[in-house]
Amino acid sequence: MAADRISKELADKIPLPPFTIETQKVKFLLNQKAVSENIEKVPLNHKLMDSVKQFGIMSPILTMPHYYPIAGSQRLRVLWELVKTDSTFNDIKIEVHRFDENWWDLMYLWGQVKERDRMVAIWFQMAELVWKSRYYVHTTDEAGTKMTEYELIGDALKWTHKSTVKEDVAKNDS
Questions:
Q1: What is the 3-state secondary structure of 50-105?
Q2: 147-160 pLDDT, tens per residue?
Q3: What percent of the chain has pLDDT over 70?
Q4: Bridge partners for 69 per DSSP
Q5: What band does 167 get if pLDDT is binned at 50, 70 and 90?
Q6: β partners of residue 61
Q7: pTM of the predicted protein model
């Protein structure tokens, strides 16, 4: 799913919730609580790491209000590893598109947990699809590797990340 795209023309017709565009240094992003507590649960994509090491970050990332990535978690995971051996990666600037609110939280009001979680996952996948189709302008890295190839590799890796958003919503409801 992460490697899917629709035409930019179609993506431009589909509304997305408001988001803020800003530029942030890698160090800032990696030091955000949601990122630092969860990024190691994202599997490391070694081929992507080689590309980032050589060519940098070529596309923006899409995040939740607290900066955890919706689109870009594999790239942040790669940067998490790279800064361990080369602190200059901390100073790389990344364009961040940050949703202004947790627009998906209303789905946590749905009573059936399994269906609710499925709806939230679909919401994120559709928002990611439209957003990537609009804002990812690089189709290949400088070596000619398709950017979607890195996404397909990442999708095939073993993911252990589990969101706590529904627990956070439940706490706020009490």
A1: HHHHHHCCCCCEEECCCCCEEECHHHHHHHHHHHHHCHHHHHCEEEEEEECCCCCH
A2: 776 776 777 776 67
A3: 88
A4: 63
A5: low
A6: 96
A7: 0.85
Residue 19: beta bridge partners?
A: 99
Q: Label residue 60 exposed, middle or buried (CB < 10 Å: 0-12, 13-18, 19+).
A: buried
Look up residue 151 and give its two tokens: 């996404």
17 touches 83 (CB < 8 A): no
The residue whose two tokens read 């996404």 is 151
As given in the structure block, the two tokens for residue 158 are 């073993």
Q: Residue 83 CB: number of other CB atoms within 10 A?
A: 17
How far is 43 from 23, CA to CA, in rounded Å?
25
Strand partners, 93: 25
Q: Where are the domains of the chain?
A: 8-169
Closest CA to 43 of 75, 11, 12: 75
- Cα end-to-end span (Å), the chain: 35
**Burial of residue 44, with CB atoms counted within 10 A of its CB: 0-12 exposed, 13-18 middle, 19 or more buried:** middle
Q: What is the dihedral of CA 150, 151, 153, 155, to 10 degrees?
A: 170
Distance CA 87, CA 84 (A): 7
